[in-house]
Description:
Helices cover 81% and strands 0% of the residues. It contains 12 helices and no strands. It has helices at residues 2-29, 33-52, 57-76, 83-104, 111-115, 124-143, 145-153, 155-160, 165-187, 192-204, 210-235, 239-257. The longest helix is centred in the N-terminal third of the chain and has 28 residues, at 2-29. 44% of the residues are buried.
Amino acid sequence: xxxxxxxxxxxxxxxxxxxxxxxxxxxxxxxxxxxxxxxxxxxxxxxxxxxxxxxxxxxxxxxxxxxxxxxxxxxxxxxxxxxxxxxxxxxxxxxxxxxxxxxxxxxxxxxxxxxxxxxxxxxxxxxxxxxxxxxxxxxxxxxxxxxxxxxxxxxxxxxxxxxxxxxxxxxxxxxxxxxxxxxxxxxxxxxxxxxxxxxxxxxxxxxxxxxxxxxxxxxxxxxxxxxxxxxxxxxxxxxxxxxxxxxxxxxxxxxxxxx
Length: 259
């Protein structure tokens, strides 16, 4: 039984690594780590709404993440506050609302399984979501690679070149929301941002091109997930935390041994 669960977790982790690596690289390049954090925290509200209205949890998460994206885009230029302040307010407000609504849902669930992840709750439909999202992310990044890089490097130049930056940004936010939705059960709301940011940050010190950074981030993510799963199984530790700590160890070692 343990072998079956471990194999399922390993398979889900491999699928997630192909999702989080390219998206995480763009988060690091565009300095949007706080935005990824806000979407991850907001995902718990999507879980609560899914339970209350008896709909698919992934759809609930996606709906809330898109709503948060549009709210932040609307208030960004209309409120005299720094963007990180609004991100923090939105993030923790959605997290608090999610916890409150989960307590009011007719179906009783353990919030910690969504906050920190619970691999044992993975079902067949979760694998469909994970690998479907992996295909979507792969297609999106391959199709829009040059426009995304141009918008990341110089938004003004991208606009002058005729790149539809607004639509491209919304498309990226949609893919990011999907990434958060499919990562939730595996690693949890509070730890999803770490999986998105730490491996690309580790890869940044070694890559000489954007393509190399995505590839190295994928390798570091795979090592972090596989190593974290083995550590979790060997020492009976929380899987999500073990994966993040393994990724953190790789990052610290890279800083120590990097020339």
